[in-house]
Structures are given as C-alpha cells and as structure tokens.
Design goal:
Layout lengths: L20 E11 L3 H9 L4 H4 L6 E8 L2 E7 L9 E8 L4 E8 L6 E10 L2 E11 L3 H41 L6 E5 H5 L4 E5 L2 E8 L2 E6 L19 E3 L6 E3 L19 E3 L4 E4 L1
Antiparallel strand pairs: 1-7, 2-3, 3-4, 4-5, 5-6, 6-7, 8-15, 9-10, 10-11, 12-13, 14-15
This protein binds FE2/S2 (inorganic) cluster and fe (ii) ion.
C-alpha cells in the first residue's frame, strides 16, 4: 500500500473546482457500530465488489493509505456499466470524508459523509449528495436513486461491522477461558452423514466438512477480518470464498488461493481414534 495521497487538488474542500452544484438528497441514520468500526469500514476499499456485490461488480485499486483510497469501479452488470474513477478522502479532524467521482458516471459528484459518536456502539451518519450540472428535476431523481443505493450499502456495512464487533468481543472473552482443547465428535460413519456441520470448540465456531472422503476442520471465522464462515459452502475444488472481501481458501491446505498471504485456522487437527471416533483438537 502506498501513501502518495489524493490526485484531486484541495481534495478535503467542498467543490474545489467551483462546479454548479445541487444537494440532491441527505441520508441520515444511526448504525449499531462504534466509530472505530465505521472508520475501519471507510478505509476498507476491498469489500466493495464482495460485500456490496449487488452494487459493484469490480474494483481496481490505484492508491490507498490513511488519507483514503482511489480506485476504478464498475457497477452492475459489469459488461454495460461504465468504469468510474472514485477518490475517497478522509478528513478525520472534522469527522467526515468525501467520495468524489473523478472520471465516468457524474464527474465532479461529491458524496460527503459525516460521523458522530452516538454512544460506545452507535454512530450517527449523515450523507450529503452533491451533484454538479443538474436541474431540480434531475437532482430529485438522482437524489432518490442515491437514497435507495445508500440504504442498501449501509445495511450491508452495518451487518458486517456488527458481526465483526461480535467476533472481536468473543475473541477477547475466549482468550480468557480457552481451556477446552479437544472435542470428540463420535463415530466417524455417523458423523459423515451429518456433514457439513458447525461445532463449538473453546468457545469458537469450527466447521467440519468432508472433501474427497477425508474429514477436515477449520475455524468458522475468516482470518482476515473475522467474517463468519459457518454458512459459506465449500465449492467443487474444496475451497470457500469469504463473502466480505472475496479471499478464497483451500480447506485442505488452509492457504489463500487468490494471492493473499493468509491461512485458515492454523492448528486445528482432525484425528480418528482406533475405535473410529473423530477428534478435533
Ligand atoms: S474477512 Fe476479509 S476476506 Fe474474510
Ligand atoms: Fe461498504
């Protein structure tokens, strides 16, 4: 990740190019996640085409850093959707960020989001859609489109943030009382008929699956940002793809198959006793 910064001059200012702008709509909501989760989500460009796969089909990153990120994105469907260059710039001291369209779509469009802490686990968000070169009718139409889109995006983001917070809390709690280190899943033949299955070991969800006749166990929590993996199906190649950022893991090796440097649940072992009981440790 580089930190070259935004290419738009005066990127933290409103309307740096003095375009004729209208505020097409304002979206207001309180989400059930802390400010920390909300800021983490803003800088997390990687989730767009995965978590928001009904709104974005692809994303090619140009640059990213603590200042924000810039990427070429496409909507849905990919074939007919124009490529849009978006630059997102954060202004932490003023608790706000702007996502600006630099090319494609509506160049010069600025979406300003303001965060305010509502309580430890709640954040108020206010989003303003500033559209250049539109009349009142055009602004009203675009405004209502943007409100619908943002409702979906923030629903998806809120779900991810809440699940991540739950996983972080559980991790902190289980570190205190992680005594249980092994579980007996009973007779191998009987177990096989029930797979796939999610069990709990030392307070953590563990998925048990069968691939090519062998039983495998892996943590039902993504090692990247702790997405729940209990309901993610194993594909024909024995892999699972995380719904949050699209990392694909080979269950047999635990390794990521799409170029990232991460491993699924190191340390979980499946063994079969002499009396054909399956142990996970
Ligand atoms: S949480 Fe990011 S790929 Fe799974
Ligand atoms: Fe998002």
């Amino acid at each position: 990740m580089t930190t070259a910064g935004p290419i738009q001059p005066n990127a933290q200012d409103h309307n740096p190019n003095n375009l004729p702008m209208k505020v097409a709509a304002v979206y207001d909501r309180v989400i059930g996640a802390s400010l920390a989760r909300a800021w983490e989500n803003v800088l997390d460009w990687e989730h767009l085409p995965h978590l928001h796969n009904s709104s974005f089909s692809s994303l090619k990153l140009e640059d990213a850093g603590q200042w924000g990120w810039r990427a070429r994105t496409k909507g849905i469907p990919e074939e007919t959707s124009p490529e849009t260059l978006i630059e997102l710039v954060v202004d932490r001291p003023n608790s706000r960020y702007v996502s600006r369209t630099l090319e494609g779509g509506l160049p010069g469009m600025e979406i300003w989001t303001y965060f305010a802490k509502a309580d430890e686990r709640k954040t108020r968000i206010e989003v303003e859609f500033h559209i250049p070169h539109v009349d009142d009718d055009g602004a009203a139409k675009l405004g209502s489109l943007m409100l619908g889109l943002y409702e979906t995006l923030w629903d998806e983001d809120e779900r991810m943030m809440v699940e991540r917070q739950t996983a972080l809390d559980a991790r902190a709690a289980s570190a205190k009382n992680a005594n249980e280190s092994q579980i007996d899943l009973g007779d191998a033949k009987e177990l096989t008929s029930k797979l796939p299955l999610t069990i709990e070991l030392a307070g953590k969800a563990v998925n048990i699956v069968q691939i090519d006749g062998e039983i495998y166990a892996y943590s039902a929590e993504c090692p990247h940002m702790l997405a729940p993996l209990s309901d993610v199906p194993v594909d024909k190649e024995g892999c699972i793809t995380c719904p949050w950022h699209g990392y694909r893991f080979d269950i047999k090796t635990g390794k990521v198959t799409n170029g990232k440097d991460l491993s699924l649940s190191p340390g979980l072992e499946v063994s079969i006793t002499d009396d054909r009981h399956v142990l996970v440790s």
